[in-house]
C-alpha cells in the first residue's frame, strides 16, 4: 500500500506554495523619499542687503583698554602701561578731574595720599593700615626684630601653661580625679564653679564665722574661685592627731597633735567635703549629680549648716587636750 500523506502536511504545503506564488509588490510603493527642508540661507533665497553700505554691528569694535592706554601714552609721551600689572583706577582718575569728584570717598582719600619714596605706587590702603597698627608706646625699649613689645619682667607665675589656673582649683581638680581621667575631673570642677556662680548669695551664720578678710556674702557669687577657697579654708583643720603606740609606756598609744601646712589643711578639708557629698541624697540623676552635691556641700559650709564644722571643732578640742603630750619624753 502506498504511504499515507497526512492531511495537515498537505494543507501546509499548499499554503506555502500559494504564498510563494503571490506576485511581488511594486518597488515604487516601498521607496520613501526624504523630505527636504529649505532654510532662509539656501541658495534659492539670499540674505537681504542693507540699503547703505558700511560695516556691520560687530565689525567696528572699540580697542582694548591697554591698547587705548598705549595710544594715549604715545601721544602724551609718558609711555605705555605695564601690561603685567594692569592700569590702576587711581592712575586713570588722575587724568580726569571731573571723574575724581564723582569717585567714591575711599578712592579720593587714596588719591590724596602721597606714598613715601622707595615704595610702589600700587600699595593698597589695607597694607598702610596694617603698618600703622604696629606702633610702640615705649621708645626706650629695643624693638629690633620684634613685631610687638617685649614682655615685662619678671614674668608672672600665671603666665606659665602649667600654672595658668588657681592653685586651689588645681588641687581640688586633682582630688576629684579618679582612674587618671583628668578631663572628667575638669568637667566636674567647671560644674561646681558654675553652680557657685549661679546660686543665690548665702546667709552667713554668726555662730560659725568664716575666716578673716572674707568679702560680703553678696559678692561671693561674682567670684566662684574665691567662693570655693573661702569654703575650704574656713573648714580646714589647723592640725591633725598622730597616735604613737607605746609612747606612754606599757603599749599605751599617745595622742600627739601635729600642725599642718597650707596644702595639707586644704587637702584634708577637700577629702572631708568629698566624703560628705557622697553621703548626700541625690535630687536627680545624671552625670553632673556628684558635682552638684559637692557644690551644695560647699554652700552649706559657708552658711554654717554642714556637719564638717563639728568635725573640725572636735579635732581642735582633742589637739588642745593633747598638747601636754608634746613635752612627754617618748620611751623606746
Description:
Helices cover 43% and strands 4% of the residues. Mean pLDDT is 77; it is low at 27-31, 121-125 and 131-136. The protein is mainly alpha-helical and 332 residues long. Helix 10 crosses helix 12 (289-302). The longest helix is centred in the middle third of the chain and has 17 residues, at 182-198. The protein starts with 6 loop residues before the first helix and ends in an 11-residue tail after the last helix. It is elongated and about 135 Å long. It is built from 13 helices and two strands; from the N terminus they run ααααααααααββααα. A two-stranded antiparallel sheet has the order 1-2.
Gist?
With 332 residues, this protein is mainly alpha-helical. It is built from 13 helices and two strands, in the order H-H-H-H-H-H-H-H-H-H-E-E-H-H-H.
Structural class: mainly alpha
Q: Roughly what fraction of the amino acids lie in strands?
A: under 5%
Radius of gyration: 50 Å
> Distance N terminus to C terminus?
148 Å
* Mean of pLDDT: 77
Tally of DSSP β-strands:
2
Low-confidence blocks of residues: 27-31, 121-125, 131-136
Portion of residues within helices: 40-55%
Sheet with the most strands: spatial strand order: 1-2
What is the H/E order?
Answer: HHHHHHHHHHEEHHH
Largest sheet: 2 strands, antiparallel
The general outline is elongated
Number of helices: 13
